Inverse folding.
């Protein structure tokens, strides 16, 4: 029996080493379907995280999905030092990990967490892969990987840990500031060419936040409370046609307000045809209109009270 157990242990050890070697050798070739490694992307996660690694002491830290990094423009806050840590399809699961990793070094006076009905219904796999591929290995990502229950995340995490932690390519990589017209602005914002949205009617839909996203958002705000960092949840307004398509938007907003201070009102000055490039993202003109309102009516009053 002991001999059998020893053989099993030896087999598992050899298999694990062989798996790691296979991932190391073939992970970046595209030949392994469960490894999705892509360094650099139009959302500029690589550049944003590299900037965050060397940034200290900010007034405002923005976190969330593309509705964060395509909305909160640091240039609209000239009297403040801000950092935008948004990333594509970032859900509360990734927001929690990033807050644990960067909160103490960035030391923000205020954290703004962007929340969106659609994002609360995503599993977060896509955003997890972006972060794994474009950041140095960190313990904060371990719970995210483990809780994903996704083979692609597991395999990509191992390859990214080896490639980004030991390889020279990651350390020497320089991401272009302009990727397909998406231009990185210091502080984490991404500006894109001016476009205008042609409003289209949307079918009725129901917002059903996932249980694990609710739990992650709760853990995230509890962590901020323990650290004594003020925060506010913000729902960046979609186009009217999209917001009107949700049959339970008010229920969603009431739920978000249960996590703490919440801002989700429409901004009257925003027009679907003038201020958006698609049904849920502001164009640069819309960004300027919206940030002026949020800066003067939400962020400045909070900072003045701190």
């Amino acid at each position: 029996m002991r001999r059998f157990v020893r053989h099993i242990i030896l087999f598992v050890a050899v298999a694990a080493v062989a798996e790691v070697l296979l991932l190391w050798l073939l992970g970046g070739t595209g030949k392994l379907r469960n490894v999705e490694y892509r360094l650099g992307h139009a959302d500029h996660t690589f550049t944003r995280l590299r900037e965050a690694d060397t940034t200290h002491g900010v007034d405002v830290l923005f976190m969330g999905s593309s509705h964060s990094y395509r909305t909160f423009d640091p240039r609209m806050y000239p009297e403040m030092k801000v950092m935008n840590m948004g990333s594509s399809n970032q859900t509360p699961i990734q927001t929690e990990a990033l807050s644990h990793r960067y909160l103490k070094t960035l030391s923000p006076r205020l954290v703004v967490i962007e929340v969106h009905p659609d994002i609360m219904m995503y599993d977060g796999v896509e955003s997890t892969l972006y972060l794994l591929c474009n950041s140095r290995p960190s313990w904060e990502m371990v719970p995210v990987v483990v809780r994903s229950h996704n083979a692609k995340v597991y395999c990509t995490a191992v390859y990214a840990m080896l490639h980004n932690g030991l390889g020279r390519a990651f350390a020497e990589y320089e991401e272009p500031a302009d990727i397909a017209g998406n231009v990185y602005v210091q502080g984490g914002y991404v500006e894109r060419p001016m476009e205008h949205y042609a409003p289209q009617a949307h079918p009725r839909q129901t917002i059903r936040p996932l249980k694990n996203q609710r739990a992650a958002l709760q853990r995230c705000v509890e962590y901020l409370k323990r650290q004594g960092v003020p925060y506010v949840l913000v729902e960046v307004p979609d186009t009217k046609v999209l917001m009107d398509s949700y049959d339970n938007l008010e229920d969603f907003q009431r739920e978000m307000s249960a996590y703490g201070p919440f801002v989700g009102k429409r901004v009257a000055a925003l027009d679907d045809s003038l201020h958006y490039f698609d049904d849920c993202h502001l164009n640069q003109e819309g960004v300027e209109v919206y940030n002026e309102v949020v800066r003067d009516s939400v962020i400045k009053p909070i900072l003045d009270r701190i």
Observations:
- The first strand starts at residue 60 and ends at 63.
- The chain has a mean pLDDT of 89.
- The beta strands are 60-63, 82-84, 110-114, 178-179, 182-185, 189-191, 231-234, 262-263.
- The two ends are 67 Å apart (CA to CA).
